[in-house]
Design a protein that fits this description.
Layout (H helix, E strand, L loop, with lengths): L1 H7 L2 H6 L2 H20 L7 H10 L5 E10 L10 H6 L1 H16 L4 H8 L11 E5 L6 H9 L9 E3 L2 E12 L2 H18 L1
Antiparallel strand pairs: 1-2, 1-4, 3-4
Length: about 190
């Protein structure tokens, strides 16, 4: 039952389903478990899931981050990497000036809305959401990982231009949220072994 609850988003979501659908989900989960065991698949216990979660905390780190991108965009609104590279010094100076504004008291979200070349999130204060490692290019990830919460980075150069980065929080994903992924991974490892 715990597997089904975590796979649908918890008991609150599960309890909103019609009773017949709840029974169907529980029945299918039991059938899948029985089939995996019959096929020689591993029986992954809740203890094994917790042990994996505890042993691999870095896999479940969730970093919430915002950025302001300084780059050149073309008439189509897309980044122009050649023009961005050609104007590198100016873009770096613009990024430094924006960082100084923020450090001097300006609101990060307002500066992002005014100056960011990233149109996908500038109107959300540069918010890139929360997530695990591997979402961004290496230079961005390295700077993000080294940055204390609520501090603003120096300009960070990537293939896209210059970024000013702000980490807004850094929390682990809950065991409940991580359990379905861990179970799948452990089951997959068991079938390969």
């Amino acid at each position: 039952r715990a597997d089904v609850l975590s796979s649908v988003g918890g008991n609150e979501v599960f309890s909103k389903f019609p009773k017949s659908y709840q029974r169907t989900l529980l029945h299918r989960n039991a059938e899948v478990t029985a089939l995996q065991q019959a096929l020689g698949g591993p029986a992954v216990t809740d203890d094994a899931i917790k042990a994996y979660y505890d042993a691999n905390p870095e896999q479940f780190a969730q970093t919430c981050v915002s950025h302001i991108l300084f780059a050149v965009t073309g008439a189509d609104g897309q980044l122009d990497q050649a023009a961005t590279a050609a104007q590198s010094d100016k873009l770096q100076a613009d990024a430094t000036a924006a960082r100084n504004e923020i450090v001097g008291g300006a609101d990060f979200a307002q500066v992002a809305a005014q100056k960011s070349a990233d149109t996908s999130n500038k109107d959300q204060g540069g918010n890139l959401e929360c997530g695990g490692a591997g979402r961004f290019v290496p230079e961005f990830e390295t700077a993000m990982d080294a940055l204390p919460i609520n501090e603003v980075s120096q300009p960070v150069k990537t293939q896209f231009g210059y970024h000013i980065i702000k980490v807004t929080s850094r929390d682990p994903q809950s065991l409940e949220d991580a359990a379905p992924t861990i179970r799948q991974q452990l089951e997959s490892q068991g079938q390969q072994g």
